[in-house]
Design brief:
Elements (H helix, E strand, L loop, with lengths): L9 E3 L2 E3 L6 E4 L4 E4 L4 E4 L7 E4 L4 E6 L5 E6 L7 E4 L4 E4 L4 E4 L4 E4 L2 E5 L2 E8 L1
Antiparallel strand pairs: 1-2, 3-4, 5-6, 7-8, 9-10, 11-12, 13-14
């Protein structure tokens, strides 16, 4: 049983290995595998802002820092209007300018076009 590992190897369950399992990240300072944040499946370091992949039901949120950089983190929330969740990357995907997102189905659909004809002003036609 190992209690420490040489450089380039990481301690996990009393054994040294070259990589860490999902849910853990390799710390080069301590040569140890540490647990990712609870919302991460995989990560590169400590904290929610180091997630590479979020757990199901949790989605990436990208925050513009205003100085040309941005941070991302896994947060439990619904995707914003005009986007839908994409389960593989657990990201909120933009539906595009002519579509809207439907949270209940997780799909984008074309915005309906409403028109009122002058010969029947009380009738609204909805084009799909």
């Amino acid at each position: 049983q190992c209690t420490g590992c040489a450089d380039g190897l990481f301690l996990e369950n009393n054994q040294c290995g070259t990589t860490c399992p999902d849910g853990k990240y390799a710390d080069n300072n301590s040569n140890t595998c540490w647990t990712c944040h609870s919302t991460c499946v995989t990560c590169t370091g400590e904290g929610v802002s180091n997630c590479n992949l979020c757990i199901p039901g949790v989605y990436f949120e990208v925050v513009d820092q205003g100085n040309g950089s941005s941070t991302k983190s896994c947060v439990l929330r619904e995707c914003p209007a005009g986007t839908v969740s994409e389960d593989v990357t657990t990201s909120c995907i933009d539906c595009g300018t002519d579509q809207v997102g439907r949270h209940t189905t997780g799909q984008c659909y074309t915005k309906p076009v409403l028109t009122i004809t002058s010969d029947q002003p009380n009738q609204i036609n909805r084009d799909q």
